[in-house]
UniProtKB/TrEMBL annotation:
<keyword id="KW-0548">Nucleotidyltransferase</keyword>
<keyword id="KW-0808">Transferase</keyword>
<comment type="similarity">
    <text>Belongs to the bacterial/plant glucose-1-phosphate adenylyltransferase family.</text>
</comment>
<dbReference type="Pfam" id="PF25247">
    <property type="entry name" value="LbH_GLGC"/>
</dbReference>
<dbReference type="GO" id="GO:0008878">
    <property type="term" value="F:glucose-1-phosphate adenylyltransferase activity"/>
</dbReference>
<dbReference type="InterPro" id="IPR011831">
    <property type="entry name" value="ADP-Glc_PPase"/>
</dbReference>
<keyword id="KW-0119">Carbohydrate metabolism</keyword>
<dbReference type="InterPro" id="IPR029044">
    <property type="entry name" value="Nucleotide-diphossugar_trans"/>
</dbReference>
<dbReference type="GO" id="GO:0005978">
    <property type="term" value="P:glycogen biosynthetic process"/>
</dbReference>
<protein>
    <recommendedName>
        <fullName>Glucose-1-phosphate adenylyltransferase</fullName>
        <ecNumber>2.7.7.27</ecNumber>
    </recommendedName>
</protein>
<keyword id="KW-0067">ATP-binding</keyword>
<dbReference type="Pfam" id="PF00483">
    <property type="entry name" value="NTP_transferase"/>
</dbReference>
<dbReference type="InterPro" id="IPR005836">
    <property type="entry name" value="ADP_Glu_pyroP_CS"/>
</dbReference>
<keyword id="KW-0321">Glycogen metabolism</keyword>
<dbReference type="InterPro" id="IPR011004">
    <property type="entry name" value="Trimer_LpxA-like_sf"/>
</dbReference>
<feature type="domain" description="Nucleotidyl transferase">
    <location>
        <begin position="8"/>
        <end position="273"/>
    </location>
</feature>
<keyword id="KW-0547">Nucleotide-binding</keyword>
């Protein structure tokens, strides 16, 4: 894999993930209690033997830069790196990245090294575990110019994805973005028998969705970028490559989730806390890497915890009840609190740490106060939730709207980063309004 270089796309503004992306980019959103989304593609690269990775960033990238810089420091003897390429104004151009392909075009000089033969293009906001060696083997054995990772899905999901049409050898001969009519769906349908023959059980899945993961021959990619003004891989570069080049499909049948909406994010996080998680963090052969924080073990004082993940450095006081929830780093949960179906992202400071103090001495400390009830919510980092607070979706609450300082997106309650809720605050008492 020494001849492979990877470009990870840092994502756009992430408007569908607001308010989680109000102060951070999508790849910097915390996941799994102690990780960031960006840890997923970089870990997949490391576990696959890819040691040269470039991260293209643009929006709200400070925390993302800090995390990558503090996490991925390769030793000087193996020649590996994870390098950040932020959008910048140069003598060649004064505009920002205009799309995924344009972002790579503006950094094409990093593809000029003579030892680079293949370029892997990844998204920074997807949750999956993949061995890219297998994808490269498929690419080379079929003498392909481009290989795209595809995922078998059923007809119900097909209308939300770009769907590939293959010939009997797995070569991509057509592509349709989000087919809607039955005629369009029939045009890109893949035979279940053919999928079964590839060693993957079709189980009623007759469509192969693009995962937004591309492997290019270096010269093929450079030509596509420099000889056209295409701005997007999915909408322009990939369809054009199908017409002019040999594009091969790589079939993937593991867990994969595009973390593009609040609902998708919330559900994927709670799935991690289930007794049989579809995305398993506890895999010694392919770990997910992140920044070491040297936190103490979590202290739990006579609490009742069911089907949950508890991260490092937490303090959970007596008689609290935590059910089907994900508890992030340094979380403090007071006595007799009830946490149900909650993604609690944790904190940067402990309650008594002066660095996390506010100017108002009456503000509650960082964490969840005594007797507080939270149900079906995402609580972003560094929130101060007082005693006897009740956060659960009231009747008549809009699917997308604002309830005082609390926001509802896709039907999920979101408490934004750094929110302060005083003792006795109740979501039921707040008049909801739509955006």
């Amino acid at each position: 894999m020494n001849n492979v270089v990877c470009f990870v796309l840092g994502g756009g503004k992430g408007t569908r993930l607001q308010p989680l992306t109000s102060e951070r980019s999508k790849p910097a959103v915390p996941i799994g209690g102690k990780y960031r989304l960006i840890d997923i593609p970089i870990s997949n690269c490391i576990n696959s033997g890819i040691r040269r990775t470039y991260l293209l960033t643009q929006f709200n990238s400070v925390s993302l830069h800090r995390h990558v810089r503090q996490t991925y420091n390769f030793d000087p003897f193996n020649g590996g790196f994870v390098e950040i390429l932020a959008a910048q104004q140069t003598n060649d151009g004064a505009d920002w990245y205009q799309g995924t392909a344009d972002a790579v075009r503006k950094q094409v000089r990093y593809l000029q090294q003579s030892d680079i033969e293949y370029v892997l293009i990844l998204s920074g906001d997807q949750l999956y575990r993949m061995n890219f060696r297998e994808m490269l083997d498929v690419h080379k054995s079929n003498n392909a110019d481009v290989t795209i990772a595809t995922l078998p899905i059923d007809q119900e999901k097909a209308a939300s994805f770009g769907i590939t049409r293959l010939d009997e050898n797995g070569r991509v001969c057509g592509f349709l973005e989000k087919p809607q009519s039955q005629q369009e769906l029939d045009h890109v349908k893949t035979s279940p028998d053919w999928i079964d023959q590839q060693g993957i059980e079709s189980n009623g899945r007759e469509y192969l969705a693009s995962m937004g993961i591309y492997l290019f021959n270096r010269d093929t990619l450079v030509d596509a970028l420099l000889k056209t003004d295409y701005e997007d891989f999915g909408r322009e570069v990939f369809p054009a490559s199908i017409r002019a080049k040999h594009v091969q499909a790589y079939l993937f049948d593991g867990y994969w989730e595009d973390i593009g909406t609040i609902k998708a994010f919330y559900e994927s996080q709670l799935e991690m806390a289930s007794s049989t998680p579809p995305f398993e963090m506890h895999k010694a052969e392919s770990p997910i890497y992140t920044r070491p924080r040297f936190l103490p073990s979590t202290r739990i004082d006579n609490a009742e915890i069911k089907e949950s993940l508890i991260s490092d450095g937490c303090v959970i006081e007596g008689t609290s009840k935590i059910t089907h929830s994900l508890i992030g780093l340094r979380s403090y949960i007071g006595k007799n609190a009830t946490i149900t179906g909650v993604v609690l992202m944790g904190a940067d400071f402990y309650p008594r740490d002066p660095r996390g103090a506010t100017k108002n001495a009456a503000d509650p400390p960082i964490g969840i106060g005594e007797g507080t009830i939270i149900e079906g919510a995402i609580v972003d980092k560094n929130c101060r939730i007082g005693k006897q607070v009740v956060i659960r979706k009231p009747s008549g609450c809009p699917e997308d709207g604002r309830c005082g300082p609390v926001i509802v997106r896709d039907g999920v309650i979101v408490v934004p980063r750094g929110t302060i809720l005083p003792d006795g605050w109740k979501l039921d008492n707040v008049e909801p309004c739509k955006f």
